[in-house]
Amino acid sequence: MTNGRITAIVLLCALTAPAAAQTGVLEKIRNAGAITMGYVEGAAPFSFVDENRQPQGYSIDLCREIANGIRAQLGVAKLETRWVALTLQNRLEAVRSGRVDIECSTTTWTLSRQKEVDFSLITFVDGGSILARGDADVGRLSDFGGKRIAVITGTTTERVLKEAIERRSIRAEVVTVKTRDAGLQLLEQRKVDGFASDRIVLIGMVLTTSSPGIYKLLDEDFSIEPYALALPRGDHEYRLAVNRVLARLYRTGDIETIYRRWLGKLGTPSLLLSAAYFIQGLAE
Q1: Do strands 118-133 and 215-217 pair parallel, antiparallel, or not at all (unpaired)?
Q2: Residues 157 and 178 in one domain
Q3: Domain co-membership, 87 together with 53
Q4: Is residue 1 part of a domain?
Q5: Which tens digit of pLDDT belongs to each residue from 5-17?
């Protein structure tokens, strides 16, 4: 092959690379006429199903806004939304494998997870806490020495809880469960002394129980949990399309309507969350 032909091939590859980069998830969505969104049940008020088995919640509403925004950005008249139920254990694999185009729940953005998937702008800021029975003599993590704490396996909460216990030399036993309901059941049956999860999720669980007054939360958080929507890794055009919608919600203040709908009874957004909304309200 001559040097001239080699040069021509290299130039052709360079010129066509940007076009190829744009034939990712957005093109898949356009061709299918649908966007596939994953969610995890039992994470009220962020993602759960109503009496008609339809996804609802704060993160679900954000994803509905994203579906509408992508439809407008693609310039198509109609875009179907397909919902896929996932678990806390398989949610990232579903995004990585392309089973879903986005995951709409309570996924914490970490650097280790970013090796598998990309993330949108931050959608919420929470902290890891522990739910205990109201009559238990515990108020801080250090009070769990010699006690048992349930936590969902495969979550960031499991990892940071174990790290916090080890760092503070607390002799507590960590009991792993697969679902939030299983953790709450162990707590109800007094088989564990606490159930660790994200604070806002624990509050949502208590509010939906028949006897919310029998529980209490620790007075401290043992971690910071920045939520974001998981996206396929390496597709910058799709990530930009998603972030355009979220930035508009933050910039215009429309996020307040969604927050009040699902989280308003818990009070106004924290200073940290308000700052996240403000900083991420990026201009076009």
Answers
A1: antiparallel
A2: yes
A3: yes
A4: no
A5: 444 444 444 444 4
